[in-house]
Amino acid sequence: MNNLEHASLIENHRRQDEIKAAEKHRLIKSITPLRTSENKWYGRLLATLGTKMVAWGYRLQSRYEEILVPTVNTNVSDNRMTPC
After folding, report:
1. pTM for this entry
2. Tally of CA atoms within 13 A in the half-sphere of 83 that contains its CB
3. How many whole angstroms separate alpha carbon 73 and alpha carbon 54?
4. Cα dist. 10→13, 17, 24, 65, 83 in Å?
5. Using H for helix, E for strand and C for coil, what is the string for 21-48?
6. What are the φ/ψ torsions at residue 73 (nearest 5 degrees)?
7. CA atoms of 82 and 41, how far apart (whole Å)
8. For 12-44, what is each residue's pLDDT tens digit?
């Protein structure tokens, strides 16, 4: 097989791969529901709620972080470290 035949074979495989990818994309696009204005509104609502829940989680975590991570105090009289 010479270089021209080899290059032609490679090009044919590449085109077949592109055709398969385009068919897959068309299939996915055809079965994916269309986004209506109601779906967009609902998605924005869920995104906002998710953002607020993350913020609430951070606030709760910072509030109770002192309980979860014990601090270490040093006893000045005998220089020993004692946990709180």
Report:
1. 0.38
2. 4
3. 32
4. 5, 11, 21, 60, 70
5. HHHHHHHHHHHCCCCCHHHHHHHHHHHH
6. -105, 145
7. 55
8. 999 999 999 999 999 988 887 766 666 678 888
- What's the CA gap between 24 and 28, in Å, rounded? 6
Beta bridge partners of 81: 74
Residue 57 has pLDDT above 60, yes or no: yes
Token digits of residue 31: 């079965």
Both tokens assigned to 20 = 């398969």
Block residue for tokens 């953002």: 51
Sign, CA torsion 56/57/63/64: positive
Rounded-to-integer distance, Cα 37 and Cα 16, Å: 37
**Looking at the DSSP assignment, which residues form a beta bridge with residue 75?**
80
Residue written as token pair 């986004």 = 35
